[in-house]
Amino acid sequence: MDAVIKVGGSLAENPVELRIFCNKLSEYAQRYDLVVVPGGGRFADVVRDYDRDFRLSSTKSHKMAILGMDQFGLLLTDIIPRSRLIRTFKNLNKRSGGGEMRILSPSAIMFRENPLETSWEVTSDSITAYVAGQLCAEKVILVTDVDGIFSKDPKLHSDAKLIPKISAQKLLSLSRRTSVDLFLPKLLLKYSLSCYVVNGKYPERIGSVLSGGEVPCTQIIPRSHPTI
Amino acid sequence: MDAVIKVGGSLAENPVELRIFCNKLSEYAQRYDLVVVPGGGRFADVVRDYDRDFRLSSTKSHKMAILGMDQFGLLLTDIIPRSRLIRTFKNLNKRSGGGEMRILSPSAIMFRENPLETSWEVTSDSITAYVAGQLCAEKVILVTDVDGIFSKDPKLHSDAKLIPKISAQKLLSLSRRTSVDLFLPKLLLKYSLSCYVVNGKYPERIGSVLSGGEVPCTQIIPRSHPTI
Lengths: 228, 228
Fold this sequence. Notes:
The structure is a homodimer. The first copy, chain A, is an alpha/beta fold. Helix content of chain A is 43%, strand content 16%. Chain A contains nine helices and eight strands. The first copy, chain A, has an eight-stranded mixed β-sheet, sandwiched between helices.
C-alpha cells in the first residue's frame, strides 16, 4: 500500500475544486496503490451541534460522526471516477487490476472493532492513521484546505508560518488543535507512519508527495529528531 | 404492534421540548407496543445541500439520507429512557417484557431490501409507513413540529386551516409538499394504514391518538370517502 489518503470534508465547500481534485486522484490510483478515507464533512459539524445541544454520550456522538464519514464516502464515490466503497480490511488490501480507487466506508470496521477512544480528539485524521497502520501503508496523506500545519491558525493570523516538517513527538507536545486532530501523533508514533498534510486545492502536490518530491506541505515524521 | 411512530428531526430544534417528548414516549412504551423510526434531522438538510452542490446520483443521496436517520436514531436512543436500537424486522417484532422502546436504525434493512424509489419524494415519512406495513402496525404516527396538515403552509400563511381528516387518495391528488412527503399516501393505500400527523410539542396528544381519543391533528385514512 503506497498511501492512505484522507479527503477532508472542508474540500466540499468548493465543489468545482473538489471535482478537479477527485479526477486527479483517480489518475493517481492508476499508478499507485491507494485507499481513500473520507472526512466527516458538514455531517460532523451537525454531530458537534447536536452534541452541544443534547450533551450526548461520547459513544453515541462518535458513532454519529463515523456515519458522517460513510455519508461523505458515498459522495466521494459519486465523483471520483472508477471508485468503489469498501467496508473490510480484506477488501481494502485487494488492489484491482484496473486501478480502481478504493474508498473506505468506515462504520462497519469501527463499530465492530472500536479501536480508538471515543472523544472529539479522535476524528477522521486518527481513523486514517489507524487504517494506514493496519494496512502497513507507506504514507498517510491528509488532504485539507490549507497548506499544512502552521505556527498559528492561518485563517486568523496573516503572519502564521507553514511548518514544513515536525516530529510526531513535538506535535504531541503542542497540545493545541492544529489542522489535524490531537490524537493523530500518538498513532503515527505507534505505527511508525510518515504523514503529510497537504492542500487539496493543488492536486499535483499529492502527486509530488507520492513520488517523493518536495512541495509546500507539512511532513510529520514518526520519531524524535534533534532539530525538528 | 400498536403503532410505528416517526419522530421528526424538526423536534430537535428545541432540545428541552424533545427531551420532554422522549420521556413521555418512554412512558407510552410501557403500555403500548411501539416502534420509533427516526427522522433525518439536520443530516437530511446537509444531504440536500450536497445534492444541490454536486448533483449526486439519487441512489447515493438516498443512502446518505438514510444514514442520517441512523444518526438521528443514535441521538434518540441517548435521550429516550429505556430504549435501544434495532436493525432487523425480526427484532422489531419482539416486544421486551420491560416495555423497552425499540428504535429502528434503518440503513441495514433499507440498503439490503431497497423497497422504495430513491427520490426526495420518499423521506422518513414513507419509510415509516413501509416499516408499519411490514410489521402490520395498527397506526402510523408522524410526529412533527406543526399540528398536522394544513390547507396552506402554516409557517407562511396565518389563515392556514388544519385539516382534521383527509383520505390518502385526496392527499395524493393535492400533488404538493405538505408536512408529509409525496409518496406516503401511496404506501398508506397499499398497506391500508391509518396515519396521524401530530404535533410533538404536546406529547399528550400522542397518548390520545394511541387510546383512540380526539385531539388536534390530521388523520389520513387509507380509503376513498365521499366527504373527505
